[in-house]
Write a structure and sequence with these properties.
homodimer; about 450 residues; alpha/beta; Rossmann fold; 7-stranded mixed beta sheet; globular
Chain lengths: ~450, ~450
C-alpha cells in the first residue's frame, strides 16, 4: 500500500488513457470454444461471419492470439469525450459500513447512454463506417446498449435500427425517446418487420418479447438489407476486447497509487462489463504474475453461471445466430416477468465461461430485493443512483466488506459500477412499494430448458 | 493563448479545489438591495430572517462585505464525491460548426441530482444540521433542486419535506421516485397540508401549481414546525455564494492553461448557476483587473430580465416571504403551460438584477423550439443530453460561435452546462412530435402583472 493520500476520485490524464485494447484470449491456455455454424456444426469461418459482422470485427472476433489491438485515433478521440471514467475510492461507504476494507469502484455511468456500453458501441460503429456501410442493426433490452449505439451512429452519420424488447419499449418510453433524440429508429420486438418476428408472433401471440427474439430480428434485418451489418452489445469476444478499456484504465489508476486489489467483483449478464474490468488483472493471473479473486455476480432469477450448463447453445431465440459454447440456461429461457434487475440473457460470454470452467473465477447469484436494498443504501451513502445491473456488484462488494468487518481483514475490494439507474425508476418504485418478489427458477424449470439444448458432438 | 495542448476535459486535482466561496457582493459598488419585511417594508433583520433560515445562512445572506467564506471541511468532503466537475473543451462542437471560436463549458450534470443544485443543497443542509435542526422544507419545480436537497439531507440524516409543483409531480413520477429513494417526503403543491395551500386551492380550484405557490407552502411548513427551517435553491444571495464554486473551479482550470474567455454565457432562471459561474470573473471586472462580456439567457416565455421591471416584489405567490428588489414579471406571473424548458421563476436574483441594471451584464431571451433544436444538436455532437434549462446557454453559445464563423473572430466562449435532461424526455418528445409552441407573453399580459407589483417607497 502506498503512503500517498488517495483522492476520492482518480482520473487519469488524457495521455495516460489506453491506446490499445487488451485481448485476454492471448493469455488463456484453454481458449474459448469457437462459434459453430448452426447448420454444419463446423467452426464459423471469417467469410461466413462477414455476412453478419463487418470485416475488422470478424478479425477481432476470431483472433485468439494477438494480445493488443491498437485503438484507432477516431475512437480514442470519441473516448476522450466521456473517458477516462473515474476510479472512485468509496470513503463514505467504508465509513458507513465501519469496515477496515478499502473499497474502490470504476464508475462507467457518466455518459448519456448511462453505462459502459458506449465503449464497444463506438468501436463497432467505427468499423462499420470504415467499411462504407450504410448502417447497423441491433437489439436492446433495458435500452442502455441501444442508446449507446444510437449515440455512436449519430456521431458517425450511420443509420441505426434498434429492435427493443417489447415490454421495455412499452415500460421505458423515455429510453426510446433518448434513442430518437440520437436519430435511431426503434421497433418493438417481436415485430411484423421480419420473418422471424412474424413466426414468433404466430407461435406466441401477445408475447412481450425477449432479448433472444430481438437478436433474431436484428440479425435478419442486417443480413437481408444491403449495406447493413449486425452489432451486439455483449457476449462476443470483440465486445470484451473493446471493454478491456475499463480494466486497463482501472489498472493504470491503481498502479499510480501502488494499490493491488484482493478481490475484483462485477455484475454478469452477457459478460461485457465483467470481462472488460477483469481483463488485465486476469491476464496477470494467467501469466502467473499476480493473483486475484474474481467474482461474477448474477441474478438468482437468471443464474447462467451458477446453475446453467456449459454447452453449445443458440445465442438467440430464432436460432439464426451461430452456436456458442457457454454457460447457458437454454435459449428459450426467459426470467420471471417480475424480474426488474436487468442481466436477463440466457447465456454468458464464451471467454468468461471458459475461465469459470477452468476455476479461475468464482460466481455467485443474488436475489433482486437484496440487490435493490444495496442499491438504495449505496445511493444514499455514495450519492450515485446505480443501475439495477450494477447493483448486483454493489451487493457483493458490501457483503465482502461486511465480512472484513467481522474478520478484521483490510482487504482491497474493487468493483465495477457499470451505470446509473435514471431510467429504472419503475423498478425502484416497485421496490419501495414492496411489489418486488424474489422468484427463483425451480430445478424442474431449468431442467426443461436444459433438455432443449442442441445436441452437438 | 497558451501553447499547451488543451485536453478534452480539464479536471482539477482534489487539492486544487476551492476552499472558500467567493462573495461577489464584496466587490460590488452598488450593493444588491436588502430584503424587506413585507409588513413594515423595513430591511429584514437577522433576527427576523432567523425564523425562516438557519443562523449561518442568515449571516451569509446579509453579508455584503466579506469576500471569502471558508467552505467547512465536511462540505468539502461531500464536494469531493462529485466534484471537481469537468471543464470541457467542445472540440466536436467547434468542428461541426466550422467556427474559429474556441468553446468551453463547465459541466455540472455528473451527479444524481442532475445539476449544479447540489452545490448549495449540501451547504444549506450542513448548516441546518450544525444548528441541531430536525429537518428542512423546500419547493421544487422540475425536481432538480428537490433531488439535490434529498441527497444532501439523506447524507446528513436530516428530514426533508419537498413541495413539488403539482403539474411536475404528475408529469415527472420518476423524479419523485428518486427523491423517495433518498428518503424525502414529496407533496404535490398546492396541498391541503398548509393554510396557504388551502387558500390557493379555494381561490383557484384545479390549479396545477407554480413555484411561487410551492415556496409559500414550504415556508409556512418551516415556520410552523419546531426544528425546521426553509431552504431555497436559487435567487438568494447565500445560494449564489455557494454556487461560486462553479466559477472558482472554472477559473482555476482556465488559468492553468492560460485561457481567458471573451464571453461568458449562462442560462438564467432564479440566477443560481449564472451567478455562480460568473462570480470570480465578474469580481475581476468590478475590480478593474479584466474585462469580460457576460450574457444571461432566459426563456422568451418568462423574460424577467429582458422584459421585467426592476422593483421590489414578493418572492412567492402566497406573499409570506420577504420582499426582494429584482427584475420581475410579478409574483402572479406563470409561464404558458406549454413551456417545457424550465427557468419558470417570475423574478431574478437581486445580485444579478443589480449587475444587469448597472450595465455590467447583458441579457437575451430565446424561444423554446430554438432551445430544443440546440439541445438535440448538442446531444448528437458532444454526446451529452442536456437539460432544457442548460440548453438556453447552448443556444446562445452556438449563435455566438456562428457569428465568429462569419466574422472570422477567434473568440473564446465559455458557457455553463448546468445539467442533464434524463428526466425531461416528455419535453423532448413534444419537440420531436412538433407539439411544442413558442408562446411569448404579450405586452398587455405583462402590463397586467406589472400593475400588481407591491408599491414600495
Amino acid at each position: 500500500m502506498s503512503e500517498k493520500k488517495i483522492p476520492y476520485k482518480i482520473y487519469l490524464e488524457e495521455q495516460e488513457m489506453p491506446t490499445a485494447w487488451y485481448n485476454l484470449r492471448a493469455d488463456m491456455k484453454n481458449k474459448p470454444a469457437p462459434l459453430l455454424n448452426p447448420g454444419t456444426h463446423q467452426p464459423m469461418t471469417a467469410e461466413e461471419l462477414g455476412g453478419v459482422f463487418c470485416e475488422e470485427l470478424v478479425k477481432q472476433e476470431l483472433d485468439n492470439d494477438t494480445a493488443y489491438f491498437d485503438i484507432p485515433e477516431d475512437i480514442r478521440n470519441f473516448y476522450k469525450m466521456y473517458r477516462p471514467s473515474p476510479l472512485v475510492r468509496a470513503y463514505c461507504l467504508e465509513e458507513k459500513l465501519k469496515t477496515p476494507a478499502k473499497i474502490y469502484y470504476k464508475f462507467e455511468g457518466n455518459n448519456t447512454s448511462g453505462s459502459h456500453k458506449l465503449n464497444s458501441a463506438i468501436a463497432q460503429a467505427y468499423y462499420a463506417k470504415k467499411q462504407g456501410l450504410k448502417g447497423v442493426t441491433t437489439e436492446t433490452g433495458a435500452g442502455q446498449w441501444g442508446t449507446a449505439l444510437s449515440m455512436a451512429c449519430s456521431y458517425l452519420g450511420l443509420d441505426c435500427k434498434v429492435y427493443m424488447v417489447k415490454c421495455s419499449y412499452e415500460q421505458k418510453p423515455f429510453r426510446r425517446e433518448v434513442m430518437r433524440t440520437y436519430g435511431a429508429s426503434v421497433t418493438p420486438s417481436p415485430s411484423m418487420e421480419t420473418e422471424v418476428g412474424k413466426k414468433i408472433l404466430a407461435e406466441h401471440p401477445g408475447t412481450t418479447g425477449s432479448l433472444g427474439c430481438a437478436i433474431s430480428e436484428a440479425v435478419e434485418k442486417a443480413v437481408t438489407n444491403e449495406g447493413y451489418r449486425y452489432v451486439l452489445g455483449s457476449v462476443l469476444n470483440q465486445v470484451l476486447l473493446h471493454q478491456s478499456v475499463i480494466g486497463l484504465e482501472t489498472k493504470t489508476a491503481l498502479d499510480k497509487y501502488g494499490i493491488k486489489p484482493d478481490v475484483i467483483i462485477g455484475c454478469a449478464g452477457g459478460g461485457s462489463n465483467l470481462g472488460g474490468l477483469i481483463a488485465p488483472f486476469m491476464g496477470e493471473k494467467l501469466r502467473g504474475e499476480a493473483d486475484y479473486r474474481f467474482i461474477a455476480v448474477e441474478p438468482a432469477s437468471c443464474p447462467s453461471l451458477t446453475r446453467g450448463t456449459y454447452a453449445y447453445d443458440f445465442c438467440d431465440t430464432g436460432m439464426v445466430c451461430p452456436l456458442a459454447k457457454m454457460y447457458t440456461l437454454g435459449s428459450d429461457f426467459i426470467p420471471s416477468a417480475n424480474h426488474a434487475g436487468g442481466l436477463r440473457y440466457h447465456g454468458m460470454s464464451s471467454i468468461l465461461s471458459q475461465l469459470y470452467d477452468d476455476g479461475l473465477m468464482e460466481a455467485i447469484s443474488v436475489k433482486q430485493t437484496d440487490v435493490f436494498e444495496a442499491a438504495e443504501y449505496f445511493a444514499r451513502v455514495e450519492g450515485i443512483l446505480p443501475a439495477p445491473e450494477s447493483s448486483h456488484a454493489i451487493r457483493a462488494a458490501i457483503d465482502e466488506a461486511v465480512k472484513c468487518r467481522e474478520t478484521g481483514e483490510e482487504k482491497t475490494i474493487l468493483f465495477g459500477l457499470t451505470g446509473t439507474g435514471y431510467f429504472d425508476m419503475v423498478a425502484y418504485e416497485k421496490f419501495h412499494d414492496g411489489q418486488m418478489d424474489d422468484y427463483i427458477p425451480t430445478d424442474e424449470e431449468l431442467a426443461k430448458y436444459r433438455e432443449m439444448l442442441p445436441k452437438i458432438d
